[in-house]
Amino acid sequence: MATGALSTQVAIASFLGGTLLLLMYFYFKENIYLYLVGALYLIITTLINLVFLLNLLHKAFSYKNHQQYYFVKIGIVITNIPIAFLYSQIVLSHIPFN
Known about the structure:
Blueprint: H1 2-27, H2 32-62, H3 67-78, H4 80-94
Helix pairs in contact: 1-2, 1-3, 1-4, 2-3
């Protein structure tokens, strides 16, 4: 069950990191380095969360007696998807394309 607890911590850390980057974006307007850091952060956290998601799916179907526990953890991990999409749309809608 350690995977489930760790996946929750990773999901929360991903959310908090993304929220911090979004707040920094609003404070430091049009900072090209922040765009790059945000894009790299999105790619890296997507890959990390995907690994945890796949692991949780494997465990959910391997350990039928703990399936509900793993599905709750899967729900926590995939909650970051619409949040990351929303944050990305907010930033992309403000990028000045010349």
